[in-house]
Design a protein that fits this description.
CATH superfamily of the largest domain: Reverse transcriptase/Diguanylate cyclase domain
Shape: globular
Protein name: DNA polymerase IV
Family: Belongs to the DNA polymerase type-Y family.
EC number: 2.7.7.7
Radius of gyration: 22 Å
Strand order of the largest sheet: 5-6-1-7-8
Largest sheet: 5 strands, mixed
Number of strands: 13
Number of helices: 16
CATH topology of the largest domain: Alpha-Beta Plaits
Oligomer: single chain
Order of helices and strands: EHEEHHEHEEHHEHEHHHHHEHEEHHEEH
Catalytic activity: DNA(n) + a 2'-deoxyribonucleoside 5'-triphosphate = DNA(n+1) + diphosphate
Subunit structure: Monomer.
Length: 397
């Protein structure tokens, strides 16, 4: 035996839509779409009709005309995430957050205190249902990769344990899309080569996979296909970057619309920096053009947590990409703040000078912390769809 299945991957089901159905009983059992212009989330009832995340709102309503479309409530989703992560940490000290709605948990060594990994997973799911009111799917396996695949296969509202002696029989027949890192482009490339299952990829020599897919990607995917994933659950790792993005659909976007979306993303990420006592040195703009080609633009600055500084850099990067956007269109815009470090070296910002951006940030943060994130908005955002992006998970130290 190659070790015990002690890694849990816990993933909330259709998270945003499930929170909406939890809080509004009249929505339960009905198809629910979160977000208007672009689908941020869809309930399983809507997914059964073909609705998918990042789909344009019009296409989604054509597929599911009786869907209930609701505006996103980011504060409600963040509160639900915090409640679930509190249960994770009460289950084991070894928790590695992946996003706002999923995490790895290492439960090895807890057998005498808490029972077998399966018993721990059963209780975890029961607690999330009873205490937070949400369904969560859990995969249990020897490695993080297999646990993540198992939770996905178990959805919705399922539990799947992959014991070491049946890892191959579980993984190899699955489609290559199940491999961590295989997106639409890589899947299409593999399909053209006649490779449709994980087992078919595993049959290749490592050098062949690297030649076909590129050295790094080929080595990574071939290792996963052959059940090699040595990464432990890391509960001490601090995030090196934070980011968020918005899928835009296929319709053309004006420069003003893109600037508004970028401003909304920057506002929230800069506030996240300050809440975590961090500063960033690099601003990274991420774009996906109309032909689905991805591009990044970045710029490094002196360590900062100021909204105005980050926004100026982001706008400059976006302006530089303007000709390509005009020619090719744009379907996604995102921003990452990288090279994070503690803000210990920054001087206190009080007393407040109203002409000072740092003082203004402090005041706005205080108001939003007390009265909610939507209590203050830029004038340009009034009356606009607040469902601007997928939030990132707050840092879990």
């Amino acid at each position: 035996m190659r070790g015990e299945a002690t890694v849990l991957h816990a993933d909330l089901d259709a998270f945003y839509a499930s929170v909406e159905q939890r809080d509004a009983p009249e929505l339960r059992g009905r198809p629910v779409i979160v977000g208007g212009g672009v689908v941020l989330a869809a309930s399983y009832e809507a997914k059964a009709r073909g609705v998918r995340t990042a789909m344009g709102g019009r296409q989604a309503r054509d597929l599911c005309p009786d869907a209930v479309v609701v505006p996103p409530r980011m504060e409600a989703y963040s509160a639900a995430s915090r409640a679930v992560f509190a249960i994770f940490r009460d289950t084991t000290p070894h928790v590695e957050g992946l996003s706002i709605d999923e995490a790895f948990l290492e439960v090895g060594g807890l057998r005498r205190l808490s029972g077998t990994p399966e018993e721990i997973a059963v209780r975890l799911r029961q607690r999330v249902r009873a205490e937070v009111g949400l369904a969560i799917s859990v995969g249990v396996a020897r490695t993080k990769f297999l646990a993540k695949v198992a939770s996905a296969v178990s959805k919705p509202d399922g539990l799947l344990i992959v014991e070491p002696d049946r890892e191959q029989s579980f993984l190899l027949p699955l489609p290559v899309e199940r491999l961590w890192g295989v997106g639409a482009v890589t899947a299409e490339k593999l399909h053209r080569l006649g490779i449709r299952t994980v087992g078919e990829l595993a049959e290749l020599e490592a050098a062949t996979a690297e030649r076909l897919l590129g050295r790094a990607a080929g080595a990574h995917l071939h290792a996963l296909a052959r059940l090699r994933d040595p990464r432990p659950v890391d509960s001490t790792r601090r995030r090196r970057s934070i980011g968020s993005q918005r899928a835009l659909g296929s319709r053309p976007r004006t420069a003003d619309e893109l600037d508004l979306i970028l401003t909304q993303i920057v506002d929230r990420l800069a506030r996240r920096l300050r809440e975590g006592g961090r500063v960033c040195r690099t601003v990274v703009l991420r774009l996906r053009f109309g032909d689905f080609v991805k591009a990044t633009r970045s710029h490094t600055v002196r360590p900062t947590d100021r909204t105005s500084v980050v926004l100026d850099v982001a706008r400059t990067l976006l302006a530089a990409a303007g000709p390509e956007i005009a020619e090719r269109g744009i379907t996604l815009i995102g921003l990452s703040l990288a090279q994070l470090s503690p803000a210990d070296g920054l001087h206190p910002e009080l007393p407040i000078e109203w002409g000072d951006d740092a003082g203004l940030d402090t005041v706005l943060d205080s108001v939003r912390q007390r009265f909610g994130a939507e209590s203050l908005s830029r004038a340009a955002q009034l009356g606009r769809d607040p469902g601007w992006s997928t939030p990132v998970l707050p840092e879990h130290e």
